[in-house]
Structure formats: structure tokens, C-alpha cells
User: What shape does this take?
Amino acid sequence: MNALARFSARPLVRAALAVSLALGALAAPLPALADETCNSPFMGKLIKGQEDFVYVWTLGIEGMGDGADKLVTIDVNPKSPRYGKVIHKLSVGRRGEAHHMGFTDDRRYLWAGGLDDSRIYIFDVYSNPAKPKLVRTLSDLPAKTGLVGPHTFYAMPGRMLVQFLSNTKDHGGVTGMAQFTNSGKLVKTVAMPTDNGGDGYGYDIGINPGRNVMLTSSFTGWNNYMMDLGKLVQDGEAMKRFGTSMVLWDLKAMTPKTVFNVPGSPLEIRWSLKEGDNWAVVATALTSKIWLVKQDAGGEWIAKDVATIGDPAKIPLPVDISITADGKGLWVNTFMDGKTRYFDLTDPENPKQTFEKETGKQVNMVSQSWDGKRVYITSSLLANWDKKGEADEQFLRLFHWDGQDLSLAFEVDFHKEQLGRAHHMKFGTKAVRAAHAPAAPARVAAADAANR
Amino acid sequence: MPRTLPPRLRAWPQRMPRTAELRRAALALLFALGASGSGAHEIQAPPADFSAPAAGSYRLDRIYRVPEGAVVDVHGKAGTLRDHTRGRATLLSLMYTQCNDEKGCPLALHTLDVVRKRLAALPQARERVRLVSLSFDPARDTPAVLRDYAGPRVRSLPAVPWRFLVPASERSLHSLLEGFEQDVSRTEDADGTVAPELSHVLKVFLIDRHGWVREIYSTSYLVPQVVINDVQTLLMEDGVRFR
Assistant: This one.
């Protein structure tokens, strides 16, 4: 039995819990992100019918295929003869800890990042949605910004706001955000607050333009997310370095207004999309809680713990969450037990779990269609945190949701297909085509020169 | 003196389908009502339950330079976009007259109507601000069509002029769309039938007097008071004071 095969999640969980309790703080975490209902409110062209493609940002595995990170396109239209099949693979030629993606506001470009090499890849998913093209690579971001680990890619009008996880000085968790034009020109950087209760950490971004506010959450730095998880949970000092805050920002001014103490590494942020709603939820990785962020009767913004996910003592490790378009339901994936849970959010002050099912030996991302009938799940968390041996399943699975149960429609085995670790998903459509056939790649390539 | 249309423009289709004519007439009526103050309820502004940050309390970044391109105004007069984006703060809307998405060009037109009136009432702002509506549909938005669309806006409130422009050539159109990073697309149904309407993400640009784009608004954040405060913030950079 080799070292990888000896890895078992159970002692790891016990160790993590022990360290966590001993420190009176948090323990092991994880990254994730989202789907059609979690896109930026500034994004147009949401797919509210049948999606045609799912793009999967996939971590390369040494010795598997070319071993490089790649954007994998899967045909998911049931009317297609290629339904459930991989129809395109676009390798970026290196391994850099592929993680999350985000569309520009016009859905023409898909930005994808590497948490290790801090590269950002800009894919054209517009000219031919079935065959994305790499049109630009931003490879000098640490030198330009002092930031490491581009994580969340969030559309703003004509720009992309990118939340980083770490920094070049100590590779710890103190970090910031950077704003770019849609073609990749750096506009500015913004530091995460380290005063008034701020820990300086970052993770996800969620904007509510109707209230002129932005929420951010907090995870951990490069030193931790690139460490082997088994080693990490044995390192008491490292385990102290996880985020415990959420920040409410003045969106227009891009300045912090309020820092909330949210222990346990709050990760994915989802604002309710229902018109008139004015709240967001977030799941904490280490403490296994759902928190609600809302305005109280006096108009003050507050954050409160409103529900528990599984048994926190077993550290199920909530990762990605996905809110329904009507704001009345929330899917929650828990990595360690491989479960997908559904919470009734009819009363956001009191979410109730109404369903759970083991959908894999390890599950991370969960993305639902706008109508909530299709739920896509992938398996990878981080290369050094994924389970070992037989538990290291790597897949994209589509489940149909009838309100009572999740039924498997198809699976793409990323090991069998020699692809790698399946991480973040975004939907694609072939229903939109350029009216004037702009020379997008040339424009992207010329962006810096034109703005010097 | 107005010039004749450039050859490329003359070569483009000048005839509109009947349905488009009807829609344009309906929209023109709607805008006329909106411009006159009645019927403004037809266009719903994005929900905004907050007080816009005070002018000058924040900084507007230099995002990118306004692209260059040859344009024609409603009188057929040729020029460049530079002629219409320097020397004053400029609010520029990329649009097309056939747009019937109430959260698209009609919303921009309505919002700019509101913003213009308020800016014209500010002695420190008027004479320092202009508005530009730039069509990305020159095949249908001829100068004459734009003139009809603009209505009295071309001549009213001269202290805050409003120019309606169209690219003078296909090359200019592409250059401007790329420079503003503006998407324009068409949608197709499951049978592959392409819809005649253009699809785009609504964008309005705030440009400083030196030709830098300093803010970009889309539907969710096109709030009149935010726009006005941004204009004031720009003018305050030049020493203009607002009470």
C-alpha cells in the first residue's frame, strides 16, 4: 500500500476536530463556487431554459493524458446525439491548481484561474460555444498586484472583480481583490481589511446592487491550501490560519462598511434572487453552519447563525452551495461524507433540511439549472485535499430533481476519460451568436497596448 | 453643411420590416411621452434602496481610453467620436433604435432624460457635461431615423447638449464596439432560426473630459442619483465645487 492509499478521511477528521477543539478555533476547509443561479447580478444572458454545454475547469494529474489543467466541454442537451459526452478538451499546457471560473457580464468570455501559479486564462466561449478558445493568459499577476491565488471571478459592468486568496510576501491568508477590464487590463487592486475586526482574508464575492453593497468571505492562504490535508490538520499553527470574517462593503466606493465575525471559514455567498428579498446565505466549512446576512428592522446589516449542516462533530465539510432561483431552497454539498443536502429556505431565518443523498465518495461543486430540475455535481476540492485511493472518484454527474429525489441521468468519469480532477462548472449555450462578428481575440490581445 | 452619407452607409439596407416600423413608432411615442414628463412610469428603474455615496467621497478609476471611430450625426455631418467626447464630461450610451427591451435602451434613454434635467439645473454642472447616444445598428439607424428617435432632445437644454450618432462605416462600427468592449449578438431558437432583434448588455459610459472611461453602468446599477454623483465627482477633480 503506498502513501496515498494509506490516506483515510476518518482519522483525518478526528485529527482536525481534535485540533480544532484544542485551539478553540477552526479546522480544515475547502473551496467551491457555483452555477446559473449564482452568477453576478450584472451578468446578462442567463440561461433560463435548457443549457447546451457544461464547461468543467479540470485539474491536471501527472501521468494522466498531458497532465495539464484543461477546460472540458460536455454536451448536456438531451436532444443532442452527443448527450453526456465530452466534446472538447482545451489544455492550457501546465498544472497550476485549476479552481474556479466566472463569465464576463456579456457572457462572451470565461475567466478561469490557477490557485498555485496565479495565472488567469481568458476563454472565448462566444465565437463557438462548443469549442472554447484560449484568447489570453494573464501570467504576471503576483508581480503586478502582490496577490496570489485568483479564486472568485465576478462580473461587474464592463469589468471583472477577482478575489484572491493569498499574497506574495508570506503566502498567508492576507490578500485582496483586483479589478480588470473584460479584456484583462488591470484597473486597480483593493486590500481586504485588517482593522476593525478584519482578518484580511478573502474567498468569495457577492453583490447586491439594489443596496449598493458587496459581501466577501474568508478562507486561507497558499501555505495552507497547497499543503497536503493530512499534514495540514496535524499542524496546529497552520490550523489557526483560516478566515473568521465576512465583510460588507460600500459597492460604489469599494470600501469596507462592516466586518462580521463568522467563525469557521465562511465560503460561498448566495444572495436571494427573488425580487424584494434582501438577504444572503453562506456556509461555513469548519463549523458546518449556514449563516444569514440581512438588514434588521432598523436597517442595520447583521450576520447570524441560522442552521446546522449534518453533524459538525464529524466535520462533514460543507463546500459548494446553490440557491434556487426563487430563493426558497438551497443545495449544500459536504465533501467528507459525499452528501448532497437540500434545505428549505422558505423562512431564511430557519432553514430546514428536507433531503439528503450520498452522490459520490467525495463531492464539491453543485450547480443547478435555472428551473431547478437539473443538478450537476463534481468531485474535486483541491489536488492535495482530495481523498486518496478508491475514494478519489473524479466525475461530473447530472441528477434530475423531481422535488423528492435525485436520480442519476449520466456520469462522465474523469479518470476513465484521462481528464483529471473535475472542479468548477459553468453552463454554455449555442443560442447566442455575434451580430457583427467582432474580432474578439485581436481586441483582447491588443488591450494592453491600446491602454498604455 | 450636412454631408451625404458615406458609401458604406448608403449601401446598407434602408428598408425596415413592417413589424419593426410599428415597434419603432410605438417606442417613439413612448419616448415622447417620457420626455414630456407623462408616461415616465412606463420605464421601471432598477430597484435602488440606498442613498448614493456623496459626490467626491470616492474615486473613479481610469478604466480605458475611449476608442476612436468615424461617426455621423443626425444631420449627416461626419466627424470622429473624439469630437464628441473631449472637453466635457460625457455620458455615452451604446444603443439602437429598434431595441424594445424595457431594461435595455429604453431604460437608458429614460434615465439619461432624468439625469440631463437634473444636471441642467445645477449651475456648476451645466456647460461642463454632454450626452451622447451612439447607435451600433447603422444598417437601420440612419441619421434620419436617429433624428426621429431623438425628437426634441437634439435642440432642448442646450447647456447640456445631447448628440445622437451612428458609426460612419462598418470598420468604424467594429472599432468602436471592440474599443468599448460592447457585445452585440443575435439569438436563435432551437430550430436555428435567428431572431431579427439585436441582443446586448446595456452599457452607459461616463467619460472624463480627457477621454478616459471612468465608470460603466449596466441595467442593475443605472441609478440617476448614482450617475449624477459620479458626474459631480469627475467635475470636482477639476476644482468645481458643489454644495
